Amino acid sequence: MTDRLVLIVGAGPTGLVLALWLTKLGVRVRIIDKTAEPGTTSRAVAVQARTLELYRQVRANASNPL
To answer: For the chain, what are the domain ranges?
Structure first.
């Protein structure tokens, strides 16, 4: 695999799941977002079932971090 950096625009649920997945595959990522500071509220109305499946696949939980 070539050493490439993937730019992910948006640090919402979709962008973060994509970053987790690509990192798990050994791809370097950089995330940018339009807000200058961390949010104080959730940006997701709900988490889709497929997103939960991806979390499970990359083992992104407190008991078994990446």
So the answer is: 5-58
| The two structure tokens encoding residue 51 | 């997103």
How far apart (Å, rounded) are the C-alpha atoms in residues 66 and 54? 13
Q: Is 61 left (phi over 0), alpha (psi -120 to 50) or beta?
A: beta
Q: Which residues make Cβ contacts (< 8 Å) with residue 57, sequence separation at least 6?
A: 21, 24
Low-confidence ranges of the chain (pLDDT < 70): 1-2, 43, 59-66
Query: Structure pTM?
Result: 0.65
Cβ-proximal residues to 37 (8 Å cutoff; 6+ apart), any chain: none
pLDDT at 17: 83
Taking a C-beta distance cutoff of 8 angstroms, is the pair 40, 19 a contact? no
Q: Could you give the CA distance from residue 34 to residue 14 in angstroms, rounded to a whole number? A: 15
